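Record 1 of the preview.
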Amino acid sequence: MIEYYQLPLLFAIGTVAGLLNVMAGGGSALTLPALIFLGLDSALANGTNRVAIVVQNLSAILSFRQEKMYQFRTSMKMALWTLPGGVLGAILAIRISDEWFQRILAVVLIGVVISMMLPGFNRAPADAGDSQQRSWLIYPAMFGIGFYGGFIQVGVGFLLMAALFHLLRLNLVHVNMHKVFIVLIYTIPALGVFIWSGNVDWLLGISLAAGNSFGGWWAAKLSVRKGDKIIRYVLFVAIILMALKLLDIF
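->
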């Protein structure tokens, strides 16, 4: 049974996650373990989290659009390659056992922490250009990222940033603009798989979505940069604790 304190708690967690997801990535490293700790099984937590991801990215897209930042055709061309991977990943997510999912999630969380420690990870290349300099490698990369996103979602923003930075040589603002659109496109059919299998808690999902959309809206406005270091330190500690808990270390 849902305790009513859980709803404002999820809104607060969702707000922080929305800021992180749009600014860089890693927000689901907070929301997914939080849902599991509230008593949801892995598939239900995974599906419920997707409600928030859809709403958050819609909000961020609208915010970017208000700032005159959108390249629909380029974003869609890349996003379409994530669709088959996203569906396959979601199907795997509803079939895997809770025990294995939580073990994989714990390993992913530790990987997210390690990636946050890498120097210059959240910085665009010095010679970043526009999206005219695209590489064919971006398309198989999008398929793989879609599969990972459909399966576990946590840290997918980091993967997208790496692909867009290093394969297309985009600057930070354009990376985030494309990223929120791509994540939205593969998450819609992935969410459909979770709905079809009965793995969505709508009340918790809507509470989380409200926070995510609020955070995502402001993150798009702020367009990253200032205050990021403090947020990353807090996220670093929180993720370490969640990973240890998922591994039953305490």
